[in-house]
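Hey, I was hoping to borrow your eyes for a little while. I've dropped the whole record in just underneath, so have a look:

——
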Amino acid sequence: MSTRSPQQLIELFDKKIVVVLEEMQKALHAASRATVFRCLTQVGYQRSYNRNGQYYTRDDPARYDTHGLFSYKKIHFSRHGNLSETVALFIRESEAGRTQRELQELLRVRVQTVVLTMIRTGKVAREKIDGQFLYLHPDAKTRGAQIQKRREMLADESFAGEVSDAVAIQVLLTLIRHPGSRAGDVARRLKGHSPPITMRHVRVVFDRYGLDDVGKKGGPSRR
């Protein structure tokens, strides 16, 4: 009988960043699912939160961005766990709650079904603020602070006008260097910029120039 060990999976991950179960079973000499997962646990891994969780990667901290996310060829991973666990954490730890659009820009997948399920099970709360649903912490005190912060943000009507040409240029340059990037992608790439360029800045620039359609098949519509 062939010897099986976590080292065989480490060698596989050294060759391929992302693998599926069948590849791991083959690397472990036709091992069972149970054997694969025993070895995976010793290696340390993450499972994709999209594509039905069928992809696996080694848990390398250096790969993740400041949000704890990592993507490889449209396969997405989170250090926080599966999609539901990640969405819940992003909502609960957010200073001003999260809208569905904000969550989708960060995670690059649809989240509607996930957030509705979490509302029904009490894992997150929801309030309608300024005409749109805001997803919030289930704790009433924390939720109140999030709502207050969101209202302060919405009350700052002059914010859009304060997004300078210099900020807009940085956003546009990032899109030129990384064609097809979404607003969340651009915000991540500009993390650490001085002066700071936040997701809110990027969102204003995207709205101002109609950039959401840039990079889609056929490009932006022409009228």
